[in-house]
Amino acid sequence: MRIPFGTIAVTKESRRLIDEALDSVRLSSGRLVKEFETKFAALTGTKEAVAVSTGTDADILALAVLHDFGARRGDEVIIPALSFVATGNAVVHAGFKPVFVDIERHTLNIDPKKIERAITKKTRAIMPVHLMGKPAEMDTINRIAKKHNLYVIEDAAEAHGAVYKGRNIGTLGDMAAYSTYIAHIITTIEGGIVTTDRADFAEVLRSLRSHGRACKCKVCVMNCGAASYCDKRFKYGEGSDIRFVFERIGYSAKMNELEAAVGIGSMTNYKKIIAKRHGNLISMIEKFQKFAPWLYTIKEEKHEQIGPHAFAIIRGEKAPFSRNELGLYLEKAGIDTRHLFSSMPTQCPGFAYLGHKLGDFPNAEYMGLNGLHIGVHQDLGPAHVNYFIKTMERFFAEKGIKLR
Fold first, then answer.
1. Where in the chain are the domains?
2. What is the CATH code for 12-266?
3. CATH among 3.40.50.720, 3.40.710.10, 3.30.450.20, 3.90.1150.10 for 270-398
4. pTM
């Protein structure tokens, strides 16, 4: 048996929409991208959603919006030390300095008790990451942000379907940045999307994704095929063509029609997919308890629903084997594994310029050396979960370790 990390199904609806787009010869951002944005906003429960080319761009552009609302280049954004490196890269690419805060080992998320000590006069935002789909402690984070007049931008890349105290992840901050990469629940193959309830933020996002253009209507009548002429086009300033007026430093980060078509189709069975993946995740969590204290995973608390992105495996401090020994054993058994990311400031050389040293973020560094994750996707079922658990039992037996 094999347990691949991820899966993708290009639905019949997606194939139909792709064919329509190809026949229309309108392949750049247009009607289908707008439809994808509208449906994603409705699914999440926000007023606005702006689609972009990657999840990393979603982080970057959400942060870059802040330059229109008082932030300055070189200001600071607080992020967890543990995340996929895109989180830290995005802060730098948006023109800010990343300020790292260690995580909690039992949640994998930013430690809210350590946030306030990281705030300075230059802090402009907090970007919590809902790692492995587990919601960060948003009530505390929002209280801190309100106290210090900071923006909150959720990195929800892995948190499709996550719920915190009855509210969807993606609705708890000023903006939220999602990835729609191929490994994620709603996928456009490559892509990302930013959600917000603020129309002014969404307007700036539409400008930023297209080089900072002054042309940023919610529905472009020309791109969406409603008309071949826009009556706003030559009314900017002294009759300038609004499409060639650039109000801010921008990016080239648009989603195209073919990607949007895949995304629209992937939302067709969204609730069923979430339910299947969540069932796999909870089954794994329950059956995995027998491997404590040598291995453990995150837990789903009563106030939340984890977005079922993947299953985390964390090596206990006294385990008589290494993370790599376990990972190689699982791989040889046909179970795809991934490392559980790294401490960005101390285990990713690109951030060495900030001057941090090993030991500054002990919990994130521990995960960087001792964490794995495997898939829970909708093509898996009870037989796959049982095969994973049996494989783990064989690993322990071969190591001579008795289970409880």
1. 12-266, 270-398
2. 3.40.640.10
3. 3.90.1150.10
4. 0.95
Exposed (0-12), middle (13-18) or buried (19+): which is 358, by Cβ within 10 Å? exposed
Please say whether the beta carbons of 155 and 87 come within 8 A: yes
* Residue 376 contacts residue 308 (beta carbons within 8 Å): yes
The one-letter code for the residue type at 323 is: R
Q: Cα-flanking dihedrals φ and ψ of residue 298, to 5°?
A: -75, 160
Query: Looking at the chain, how many residues does it have?
Result: 404
**338-339/371-375 β-pairing:** antiparallel
Q: What are the pLDDT digits (tens) for 238-293?
A: 778 888 889 999 999 999 999 999 999 999 999 999 999 999 999 999 999 999 99
C-alpha closest to that of 58 among 148, 142, 158, 143: 158
User: How is residue 239 annotated by DSSP?
Assistant: T
**What's the first-to-final CA gap in the chain, in angstroms?**
27
Beta strand pairing status for 123-126 and 76-80?
parallel
Q: Are 112 and 140 in contact (CB under 8 A)?
A: yes
